[in-house]
Amino acid sequence: MRLTHRYRQWKADRKRYPTRWLSYRRRLKTDVELAYKLEGGEVFFDEQYIDKLTADARALDAWIVKLAISQFLIGLYLLDWIISGSVEGTIFGISIKYKEVIIALLAVLGLISYILTGSRDLRIWIIETLVSLRTRNEFSDFAQLAAYSGFHIKTYSTKPYARWIFPKFSSKLSFALLTFLGLFLLLALLAVSYGLFIYVLVDAYKNPGLPPPWSSVVVWFAVLTHIFGLLWLVRLWIPLPYKDMGILLELKNLEQRNPERYRQRLSEIFHDP
Question: Max CA-CA distance within the chain?
């Protein structure tokens, strides 16, 4: 009997408080939209505010590029080490004698890259939202092209329904091939990068250059930084479940504005299921 009651209560709560799948980007956009609609919001989110976010995003992009170049050079060093079998050399003026030093460098640079990229994306998402709010719908796509984006990379999809001119098979095929090749090259780059890094991790674990405790610490530090990076990306980009309890806010507003309607809604929502 108790289990039956709990089950009915659980079903009622799911109906009252539905689950919504939201990414951090979607939640951030909602926050900016709500703040923009407040009194004084349009004044606060002016051109000067957007310019400040743009300047910050550009500065972060410059650091991200430097980190990417550093990681690429270390990747070439790793490739040379795998081919030659000798780990000794110099990177950025630092003499390298142990493979664990390379692993630690890559892990630290990767961790910093994740954090800087997330901080840059935060600013860009706010800029995109503000541009949409400040621009009429028919001009929004063109306004987004003028707004700052990561490394100034922008795409634009033409609107065939505007003039009812549609692509034929050859045009669709060329676009499909371009998309396929782009994805293939991206996946190949990721596979080679992670393949090299995993090879180095496994080699350092099996054949440590430092005393065993320190070598293991470096390997596990590198593994944890990559797990952190993956979780960071999930939090930023992947929709996650949230409980929508907006109905309680509705009741709170009704209680102040319309007590009679408030009691009616209260009875509708929290009646015994």
Answer: 82
